[in-house]
Design a protein that fits this description.
The protein is mainly beta. The protein has 2 helices and 20 strands. The protein has a single domain (50-286), classed as Tachylectin-2, Chain A (5 Propeller), CATH 2.115.10. It has a 4-stranded antiparallel sheet, with no helix packed on it. It has a 4-stranded antiparallel sheet with strand order 2-3-4-5, with no helix packed on it. The protein has a 4-stranded antiparallel sheet with strand order 6-7-8-9, with no helix packed on it. The protein is globular and about 45 Å long.
């Protein structure tokens, strides 16, 4: 019996539908030319981001922090040295930064634009020497300037907001407070505000640390050890109406199903992903 052409088309259509169901092709996510999947904003002012997807491993390679630049699909991870790769990929390579006298760099904080990097410089004896700013052009990183952050008073520096028009960055200092400093273009980075544990958490005995800003600078996530370090440890969240005003607290603890750590949290601008680390492994939770 001769099969008519329209019957052949119907048969092929049915087979295609079956393949979609069997192989989940109907759930495939489109990716855009810049390499980053586009998502609708998930931030709602006055509401705590809700992460309903269990955490999953991004990198399990002795890594402590993760900073993605979504616009160019590039992420930096601090794994002893600084490594670079595509966002959410476990395939990374050591970043080549110019150095001298055997110095090396760690604690890399990639700017949201992906063309600037704050890194801490160490000598061969693994002693911190200072903080440096690097810039990238056509994929080549060069040293731009030594930043005025003293290693004797600055304990840690978080992921900054956008450098254009002027980056804000949070740092914990030896006084136990989180200090917000701003790039004014003259490499002095004046202080905008200082936040103590009582204001940020409602617990004056808490320890606050490892604070990072979203790319727009309107939201901050940080690690908090409550009750003088003897209580629970949380990833805390606080927001503000504009980058030009100070944060006000107290913040709120983020509820992350499957959370296994709270070190170096980083929240994407649309609140869609929360990165953090524990036991030298980078995790991500998604809304």
């Amino acid at each position: 019996m001769q099969v008519q052409s329209h019957e052949v088309r119907v048969l092929l259509l049915l087979l295609l539908c079956a393949c979609n169901q069997i192989f989940d092709l109907h759930k495939t996510k489109l990716r855009f030319p810049d390499g980053a999947a586009k998502a609708d904003p998930m931030c709602t002012d006055g509401s705590l981001p809700a992460f309903g997807v269990a955490s999953r491993v991004v990198i399990a390679n002795q890594c402590t922090s993760y900073s993605p630049a979504e616009s160019i699909d590039l992420a930096m991870s601090s794994c002893g040295y600084i490594f670079a790769g595509a966002i959410d990929s476990d395939t990374t390579s050591a970043l080549q930064l110019p150095s001298s006298n055997g110095d090396y760099f760690s604690d890399g904080r990639l700017a949201p634009e992906g063309d600037r990097l704050i890194a801490r410089r160490f000598n061969m004896l693994q002693q911190a020497q200072g903080y440096e700013l690097f810039v990238s052009s056509n994929g080549v990183w060069t040293h731009d300037k030594t930043l005025p952050f003293s290693v004797s008073t600055v304990v840690d520096v978080g992921m900054p907001s956008r450098f254009d028009p002027g980056a804000h960055v949070m740092m914990r200092q030896t006084d136990g407070k989180l200090h917000e400093r701003v790039d004014d273009g003259s490499n002095t980075w004046p202080e905008r505000a200082a936040y103590d544990a009582g204001m940020l958490t409602g617990d004056t005995s808490a320890y606050v640390m490892m604070a990072s800003l979203t790319p727009d600078g309107r939201r901050m996530v940080f690690k908090a050890n409550l009750l003088g370090g003897d209580g629970p440890t949380h990833i805390m969240y606080v927001e503000r109406s504009s980058i030009d005003v100070a944060f006000s607290g107290p913040g709120q603890a983020l509820d992350v199903p499957g959370q296994v750590g709270s070190n170096w949290p980083y929240l994407t601008e649309n609140c869609g992903k929360l990165y953090y680390s524990d036991l030298s492994t980078i995790y991500v939770a998604e809304q």
